[in-house]
Amino acid sequence: MRCPACKNLMIVVEHEQIELDYCVNCSGVWFDAGELALLLETMQLEGTGISVDSVLTSPEAKSSEKKRRCPICGHKMKKATVGHEPEVLIDACPRGDGLWFDSGEVGQLITQLSDKPSEESDSQGRVITFLGEVFRV
């Protein structure tokens, strides 16, 4: 699969039933439909309401960033924001094939989804552990 951002080939990594497509060049991550929910469940952050469907029904985000093409179907993806303070700009396949996160955006979103400030460092630790295990060489 080709990276929607830099067009290089991506590698597939798998951890705890989650198969991610990762670009070693730009560090972006592609989540097929349903994989983000699995990641949030792994991080004990399920029930946040963030899914491909919720992103597709949200308003289009205004951005000067060029629209990217879905690595699965080739259609131009929708720009959408998720999270808060600051919102994370992601790309969503209009057919629901998946979501694209640029480098660092998955960690930003997971950190923001922590319910309480006291849980934030624990949540970050889980993300770091998860991503460290996924991308271990």
Can you describe this structure?
Helix 3 (105-112) runs antiparallel to helix 4. The protein has a six-stranded antiparallel beta sheet with strand order 1-2-3-6-5-4. Strand 2 (18-22) and strand 3 (29-32) form a beta hairpin. It is globular and about 30 Å long. It has a domain at 30-114. The protein starts with 10 loop residues before the first strand and ends with a helix. It has 137 residues and is an alpha+beta fold. 29% of the residues lie in helices and 20% in strands.
Summary, kept brief:
By secondary structure, the chain is an alpha+beta fold.
Helix and strand arrangement:
Elements: E1 11-15, E2 18-22, E3 29-32, H1 35-42, H2 52-57, E4 78-82, E5 88-92, E6 98-101, H3 105-112, H4 117-134
Features:
4 helices; single chain; alpha+beta; 6-stranded antiparallel β-sheet; 137 residues
Q: How much is the radius of gyration in Å?
A: 14 Å
Low-confidence stretches: 115-121
- Biggest sheet, spatial arrangement of strands: 1-2-3-6-5-4
Q: Round the mean pLDDT to the nearest integer and report it.
A: 80
Classify the beta-strand content into a percent band: 15-25%
> How many helical stretches?
4
Q: What is the N-to-C succession of helices and strands? A: EEEHHEEEHH
Which range best describes the helical content: under 10%, 10-25%, 25-40%, 40-55%, 55-70% or over 70%? 25-40%
Structural class: alpha+beta
The tally of strands reads: 6
* Bulk shape: globular
Please give the alpha-carbon distance between the first and last residues: 20 Å
